[in-house]
Amino acid sequence: MTVKSDIEKAVAAAQSALGTYAQFASATDDPAAKQMFQQMQQDMQRHVNMLNNRLNYINSNNKLNQQQQATQQVQNILSNKK
Fold first, then answer.
1. Where do transmembrane segments lie in this chain (predicted)?
2. Which residue of 16, 19, 77, 82 has the lowest C-beta tally within 10 Å?
3. What's the total number of domains in the chain?
4. Type and span of the H or E element at 2
């Protein structure tokens, strides 16, 4: 696995947890539990933001990734001409 794919998986997991905490917060009538889930949701949003920032950095600064993207673009162009 590459760092990029690991981060992509971490983003997906963090987004899933974010949604779960939001759902729990809206489903409870217990004020203390609601506050806890909202705090966890905010924490997870920070995690998602950090991961996305790192992923954006990798996408824009990783030479190998840029080469792979260029190769994919050429392949897409060639397949569209068929």
1. none
2. 82
3. 1
4. none
